[in-house]
Amino acid sequence: MFERFTLDARTVVVHAQEHARRLGHPHIGCEHLLLAVTSADRPVSAVLREQGITPERVENEIVRLVSHGGAGLFGDLDRDALSAIGIDLDAVQARIEASFGTDAISDAANAVHGGRRRRRRKYQAKGAALRGHLAFTAGAKKCLANSLREAQSRHDNFIGAEHLTLG
Fold first, then answer.
1. What is the fold of 2-166?
2. What's the CA gap between 75 and 31, in Å, rounded?
3. In this structure, what is the dihedral angle of CA atoms 123, 124, 125, 130, given to the nearest 10 degrees?
4. CA nearest 71: which of 105, 33, 99?
5. Domain ranges of the chain
6. DSSP-derived secondary structure for 26-39
7. How many helices (H) and strands (E) does the chain have?
8. Which SS3 state, helix, strand or coil, does residue 127 take?
9. Tens digits of per-residue pLDDT, 58-91?
């Protein structure tokens, strides 16, 4: 499929990987693809920005969701209820990461929920970007597959940034 990607689409995927690394995420998700598209200097990016979907807004939302459990660090725990009894999830997360590393929570969740064994990832330094291959999440893979469908439905023999956005 990647052989059909235009240079712009390939650049979006490369920038998505760079955003994921910079944010310290061990994967490339749909959110990273969206961040890369909004950050690009392409017509589709301008359309998104005109609609209020800016790189800053997308990144802030990614950070907010990850730091507040929306993306699954603490699942569906009720922050307000826990706060009412004196438990600050941000403080708990910070202490866990300080003691056991930034992947400790997600690794434990994978172990509890029967996740596949993962190779240990190498970090350059605490909080630094990951080295090596970053896999696509299932959602990002679906986005890429949908971009192919979008191109086919428009009878295009290429996949561009606009198709990635629609996917």
1. Double Clp-N motif (1.10.1780)
2. 18
3. -50
4. 105
5. 2-166
6. SEE-HHHHHHHHHH
7. 9, 2
8. coil
9. 999 888 877 655 444 555 456 676 677 777 777 8
